[in-house]
Amino acid sequence: MEKEVIKIVLEMLEEMHPDPKCELIYGSPFQLLIATVLAAQATDRKVNEVTKELFKLYKCPEDFLELTEADLADKIKSINFYKTKAKNIMDICRVLVIKYKGQVPESREELVKLKGVGRKTANVVLSNAFDIPAIAVDTHVHRVANKIGLVETEDVLKTELELERLIPEEQWSKAHNYLVLHGRYVCNAKKPKCSQCKLASICRSHI
Ligand code: SF4
């Protein structure tokens, strides 16, 4: 896809989603990391409901380590895969305290070494908490980028690398949030609202 077309796509997405922000609620890079781990295969709304109470009492890795894994599992039990997530979060907190003085590392290489943290989660944390350009490819970003025709691949990593090639680096983080919001609220997987979509004139999947 031509860079001129990318520019137009980004402008149209901006018109539809003028305030492109991560919808997870957090007060620190650590809280965003935990919220993002919890958000795997769960909605941001559900995660925000749970973390609203959780983060009032447990703000940093040291606080979480006062809990047992079973205590934490109980507190997050309304979220999918809560047992595995509780185990991973306790492990993450131990590593953060032992290896990083309780701070979240600002590098993808280090982040993906943490339990339950993949490339997508690392990119969400880097771009939103540290303002480091990154495109986190979740199910929405992957689907919408393919539907519009920005990329043509079933491989999530290829989608990330192709989007990074096409989009100017200073717009990566914004572009990620545009595509997430567009997938959530307009280009829904089951029922895309093409009649309300400004991209309809150039989208190859327009119905
Ligand atoms: S025109 Fe339809 S398929 Fe294309 S991006 Fe918009 S909502 Fe999605």
Number of domains: 2
Ions, cofactors and other bound molecules? iron/sulfur cluster
CATH superfamily of the largest domain: Hypothetical protein, domain 2
Which strand-content bin applies to the residues?
Answer: under 5%
Query: Which segments are poorly predicted (pLDDT under 50) over 5 or more consecutive residues?
Result: none
Topology:
Elements: H1 3-16, H2 29-38, H3 44-57, H4 61-64, H5 69-75, H6 82-100, H7 108-111, H8 119-130, H9 139-148, H10 156-166, H11 172-185
Structure description:
The chain has 207 residues and is mainly α. The chain has 2 domains: 3-20 and 137-201, Endonuclease Iii, domain 2 (Orthogonal Bundle), CATH 1.10.1670.10; 29-130, Endonuclease III, domain 1 (Orthogonal Bundle), CATH 1.10.340.30. 57% of the residues lie in helices and 0% in strands. It is elongated. The model has no long low-confidence stretch (mean pLDDT 95). It binds iron/sulfur cluster (SF4). The site of iron/sulfur cluster has 13 residues, from helix 9.
Which features would summarize this protein structure in a list?
207 residues; mainly alpha; Endonuclease Iii, domain 2; Endonuclease III, domain 1; 2 domains; 0% strand; binds iron/sulfur cluster
